[in-house]
Design brief:
This protein has 128 residues and is an alpha+beta fold. 29% of the residues lie in helices and 32% in strands. This is RidA family protein.
């Protein structure tokens, strides 16, 4: 069993002790991912655009493992305001319209940065 670790290079990964993504055999686990670019939160106040950015960040991590969004079989979505479900869901649906993974969306009290509105975990299975 080979373990491939993907790092985004943030100081949090070594400080907290986690990887952006981990691939073991044909399974890829992507850590909770937010709408950041170059270390800064993007699209403040916009749950749709934050979800799009979080998914783009997930796609980047998957790509480094040889997987893609079409390989995703499970997502977990953490929203700070469940009333944003439709905007978050629309962005999720656009990205995963073909894969249609099992998905859960729950409201959480807050995320690490108060500007963050959504965080997404993903699991992918690479077939073939």
């Amino acid at each position: 069993m080979e373990r491939q670790r993907i790092s985004s290079g943030t100081e949090w990964e070594t400080e907290v002790g986690y990887s952006r993504a981990v691939r073991v055999d044909d399974t890829v686990h992507v850590s909770g991912t937010t709408a950041t670019e170059d270390g800064a939160v993007v699209a403040e106040g916009d749950p749709y655009r934050q979800t799009k950015q979080a998914i783009a960040n997930i796609a980047d991590a998957l790509d480094e493992t040889g997987a893609g969004l079409d390989d995703v079989v499970r997502t977990r979505i953490y929203a700070v305001d469940i009333d944003d479900w439709d905007e978050i869901g629309r962005a999720h649906g656009e990205a995963f319209s073909d894969a249609r993974p099992a998905a859960t969306m729950v409201q959480v009290e807050r995320l690490i940065d108060p500007e963050m509105l959504v965080e997404i975990e993903a699991e992918a299975r690479v077939m073939g």
